[in-house]
Design brief:
The chain has 430 residues and is mainly α. It has one domain. The model has no long low-confidence stretch (mean pLDDT 81).
Length: 430
């Protein structure tokens, strides 16, 4: 059987298994193993590749950042940051929406996980927003959109995974490159949510009182110091990205146990169990995706697809728009981590053909993934926030789509003006 026929079988199996509702990790592993067997590539290489794909030192950062995010969520730190953000924004229509996004952005400098931030902020902010008269769909959409910035604002689990798949892009360079787009995305969402609140006349928090600024700052100072310590230690070279993840866990543990006194032995046990479950899911996808990658690389499937795409779309601008469209549509149905494993083997040859900077392209991919996290019908952040709001995914469609447009403006800016992304890493010497 020819390699082209085997490549067709690989993708046919992938699509059929996904359509049958098989989990993505299992789909990637089964499709890859079947083709390895058909092509006689050596079944003994399958367990070896599974082990090698996750036995890498940089990947230790993933469970550590996951654990840090859950620790800060359970420690009740989000509540102190909400009061501080409310003291800055003040009582005005749309103020609670802006507060939710600001808090989510700050949490992005701690956990690097969109669903974790959406859960932490949603638990505190969504009840307040509902009490203030916001529609349930609006509240869920705003918190989910704010949480999406967390994979852009360092530290970011998505950037760690991208760096592993594209070694030419270092983690510190990606962290620096994601900072400005992450801040711009947050600002765009803040203005978008305030405009929506005023246009539709939702929310009555203008009648509320502004929390005292200095008191709120004192309560939130420990939480605000977390991203400063983590990113500052990275920039000065005191720790590596993996060690920074461990530092984040240690700092969160100390704050939760000795300052806020919310991390009891029982809570710590629950935190560890939840972190293990989430980390296991991520690493299982990573491990079984390696089998799919081995099969596709041996057959040259993605290289052929990339050549076909390049030959049919010769314009660089058209190619960028096409890739953005592919990732935005994929983000509506596939979680962010899976998008890296499914599409990067196809995108890397295209990136090399047009000589795009791998750091810049990594930020573009992550921006698209961020949009997909709160884009119906399967936005992962929306799944989390809809549970807190007690509403259906359908009720968020209009609100989420309008916020997607706000964030898409930042995506287009970063796509066609690369200095927005590359200015900071070049300034820092990466």
């Amino acid at each position: 059987m020819s390699y082209d026929a085997l490549g067709a079988i690989l993708f046919l199996l992938f699509v059929l298994l996904l359509a049958a509702g098989v989990p993505l990790a299992v789909t990637l592993g089964l499709a890859g193993t079947a083709v390895v067997a058909f092509a006689d590539l050596g079944l003994s290489t399958v367990p070896l590749n599974v082990y090698n794909s996750i036995s890498k030192y940089p990947l230790l950062a993933i469970p550590m950042f996951v654990l840090a995010g859950i620790i800060f969520e359970r420690a009740g730190i989000a509540g102190s940051m909400v009061r501080f953000a409310a003291a800055i924004v003040g009582p005005r229509r749309g103020g609670l929406a802006a507060t939710a996004i600001i808090v989510a952005m700050i949490l992005g400098g701690i956990s690097g996980s969109g669903p974790a931030a959406s859960s932490a902020v949603g638990a505190v902010m969504i009840p307040q927003m509902l009490k203030a008269g916001y529609p349930r769909g609006f509240a869920a959409s705003v918190v989910a959109a704010g949480g999406s910035t967390d994979i852009l604002i360092p530290p970011s689990i998505a950037f760690v995974i991208y760096s592993m798949l594209v070694p030419a892009a270092s983690v510190p360079a990606l962290f620096a490159a994601g900072m400005v787009p992450g801040l711009l995305a947050g600002i765009a969402l803040i203005f978008g949510s305030i405009w929506l609140a005023r246009r539709h006349g939702v929310g009555n928090e203008a009648e509320g009182l502004r929390p005292p600024f200095w008191k709120s700052l004192r309560e939130a100072i420990w939480a605000l110091m977390a991203p400063v310590i983590i990113l500052g230690s990275l920039r000065t070279g005191v720790v590596t990205p993996t060690e920074a993840a461990v530092l984040a866990v240690f700092y969160g543990f100390v704050i939760g146990v000795f300052v806020y006194r919310t991390l009891t032995p029982r809570v710590i046990y629950e935190v560890l169990v939840e972190a293990c479950e989430i980390s296991a899911v991520i690493l299982t996808i990573l491990a079984l995706a390696s089998v799919f990658a081995v099969a596709s690389n041996a057959l040259g499937t993605f290289e052929h697809l990339a050549q076909a795409l390049v030959s049919s779309v010769s314009s660089e601008i058209a190619m960028l728009l096409a890739l953005n469209a592919i990732m935005l549509v994929a983000g509506m149905f596939i979680d962010g981590i899976s998008i890296f494993f499914v599409f990067l083997p196809l995108f890397i040859p295209i990136m090399q053909h047009f000589k795009w900077d791998p750091v810049w392209f990594g930020v573009l991919m992550t921006l698209n993934i961020a949009v997909g996290q709160f884009h119906p019908p399967v936005g992962l952040n929306l799944v989390v926030t809809c549970k807190f709001a007690g509403t259906s995914m359908e009720s968020t469609t209009y609100w989420a789509f309008m916020l997607v447009l706000a964030m898409a403006s930042v995506l287009l800016l970063c796509t066609f003006w690369p200095p927005v992304v590359m200015w900071l890493p070049r300034l820092l010497g990466y």
